Amino acid sequence: MSTLPSDDAPSNRWLPLVLLLFVGSGCAALIYEIVWLQLLQLVIGSSAVSLGVLLGTFMGGMCLGSLLFPRFVGPRPHPLRVYAILELAIAVIGLLLIFGLPLLDDVYAIFPVHGWASMLLRGVIAAACLLPPTLLMGATLPAIARWVEATPRGISWLGFFYGGNIAGAVVGCLLAGFYLLRVYDMVTATVVAAGVNLAVAGLALLMAQGIPYALREDGISRSEMSTIAPWSIYLAIGLSGFGALGAEVIWTRLLSLMIGGTVYTFSIILAVFLMGLGLGSSFGSYLAREIKSPRLGLGICQLLLAGAIAWAAFILAQSIPYWPIDPSLAKNPWNNFQLDLLRCLWALLPAALLWGASFPLALAAIGNRGGDPARLVGSVYAANTVGAIFGALAFSMLLIGWIGTQKSQQILIVVAGASACIAMAPLLFVRQGSPAAAASFSPPAAALSGAAFMAALVGVGWLARTVPPTPGDLIAHGRRVLSRSGYYTLLYEGEGMNSSVAVTLIDGGIRNFHVSGKIEASSEPQDMRLQRMLGHIPALVHPEPKSVLVVGCGAGVTAGSFLPHPSVKRIVICEIEPLIPRVVAEHFAEENYGVVKDAKVEVVYDDARHFILTTREKFDIITSDPINPWVKGAATLYTREYFELCKSRLKAGGVITQWVPLYESNPAAVKSELATFFEVFPEGTVWSNDVGGLGYDIVLLGQAGPLTIDVDQLLLRLLRPDHANVGDSLDEVGFHSGLDLLATYAGTAGDLGPWLAKAEINRDRNLRLQYLAGFSAHEYREAAIYNEMLQYRKYPEGVFIATTASHNELRRRLGLPK
Known about the structure:
Layout: E1 2-4, H1 15-43, H2 48-72, H3 79-100, H4 104-108, H5 116-145, H6 152-183, H7 186-210, E2 214-216, H8 230-259, H9 263-290, H10 294-319, H11 333-366, H12 373-429, H13 435-440, H14 443-465, H15 472-477, H16 481-484, E3 488-495, E4 500-506, E5 510-515, E6 518-522, H17 525-541, E7 547-551, H18 557-560, E8 570-575, H19 579-587, H20 589-592, E9 601-605, H21 608-614, E10 619-624, H22 640-648, E11 650-661, H23 667-680, E12 685-689, E13 697-703, E14 709-710, H24 711-719, H25 724-731, H26 738-742, E15 745-748, H27 768-774, H28 782-790, E16 800-801, H29 804-814
Parallel strand pairs: 7-8, 7-10, 8-9, 10-11, 14-16
Antiparallel strand pairs: 1-2, 3-4, 4-5, 5-6, 11-13, 12-13, 12-15
Helix pairs in contact: 1-2, 1-5, 1-6, 1-7, 2-5, 2-12, 3-5, 3-7, 5-12, 6-9, 6-11, 8-9, 8-10, 8-11, 8-12, 9-11, 10-11, 10-12, 10-14, 11-12, 12-14, 22-23, 23-27
């Protein structure tokens, strides 16, 4: 029994219009996926767990949907009406999730546990919420598959549907990443996606009204296509999915090193990968209809994949990082985006094309004439997505952090070779089919085929052995590797689960700590001064701090700055990448006073937002020194909601400091950071760590209430014997007295009000900062930004309480009139 429209063959008239439905459906699906990743960063944290949960749930739900649909929905309902109902349900659930997922914070707050167990618990709960819509998404292809016949021509149309769905996904990826989320917010993006679902559903219902549909008994039982060892096709396409998602995880890590880990980088990488899958699927659909052995075509695709993966590994390690490119020369970020797109295409497109072509060839290799197309599509799609789930989870949460990207790519090549073996082995070693086919399997032909097969496997092994290691230079300096190579010694390089880190030594004994291709901390004078300011300013402003929370370990210098203060009894460091406290901080033990081994210190490996949300503890000081705000996921530690969480965890009289870089930024991003902080701490102040009056970075200081600093009391404190080590720590970075430290004052929230009048507030629902900052990751405008701020600076009569002599001295040091 087959299913066809009652009047004529569907492929002649209506299938191109059905293809349009799949384009719209794919567009909506990718908008949802990108929005959900941002939501998961808030719920779980910006870590490998959040990426693994999203990919695993997205692919897992689609797998289950494709498998369960033909078992629970019979072939009698009109496929277009079923498709319309699925799209309507996706729209409704998508709208519910955008408002419901943030409420999970209340659920997590019930379980005050931290670390790996907590992240996995949050991941399981979030995955359960995302499962319903992804189940429905996975059911759409099997649902519409009943509109075609399980013939070579019909199956080729299923491949075109799959390609059209991916083409729509490319549009959705770019639309969400470069426009909807950059200009609006997650709610608006979700409404647009739901609107696309509704439009697709409406068009499908209109088509169902005008196109009759009926079941037809045709009496044809088996396909003219090969049915040799169908399990081998399922296994081969499953391994193909494993490799595809594993490669996406690895190559996203490597490409974000060399072109910068902004939200735009991730959108470009995903769009290129999807583009390749879509184009490959369309070409594979054509081949599936024209070639005699789709199984052989699938096997050849997998063999070629071994070469394409090796190509990408070589290009990403030995070629692209050393292109003579200086991104800071571009006057417009769109110029860099075009270049980034070219680099991604050059590296990723060959493999993505072959993975895309594999799916329709697998469909054709296992198809049955007269069978239920929904079951055919559902089973092959499920096998592919099961492999994809394991690939996403294995590489993001285990293999990269365990064996590194080089060996992980070697595994990908071996997996591609294994998939080719499994697909083609039955053709070589199983004599089934017609007498003519059996006769053609002569001993000479079999020997020749076997020899070619073995030679191909030897080639796969050779390719795996030639995968180059990920250069330590790339881990250290990322997009600036060419301009900075050769003048430093690499002391350490490591690929953690969440980040790649390195430590380098340059002339003069300066050590640099690198995260994901950029210097995050160092023993340079200006960096040491900033790290000490983040610790000493709040510790001296607070009359007697006892407990401290440090967000982000870095080189450990900020956390270590609290150790000399005699009243501090407890320091909690919250860090998401285990390599940093365990390895990196040891290289800066002299500067950080051996902080990670001190008895007062507890290191918590977790997302800072979740730790602050669930901890019952309150602190005298919270100091936050996250990665640059242009790095994808970092903006979650600069939102209004995050600062409100911090405020709720401060004891009475508690203070908070926040790092804000002026370099690799722009005025709009800096204004957003300051305005967001001052909305929660309206009495906040700014303290400058500038270099020669040209700007560099700043420290924001806030308190739950009006901030006052008793200048003379602070100066007397520094003269006490028990604060001698504090004075030495300040002296090491150029603050030879308390007045030197106080002279870094750069303004109050009230002073800067006119400058911040039109600043955009960074909120959880929009994460506006990462889109603003992402445009200026290659710019250095710190001097101009700092000079703009100084125009609004006034002497803070209400902040500094001091004798006339101290006031006059501070005015002189600040260059402000009496």
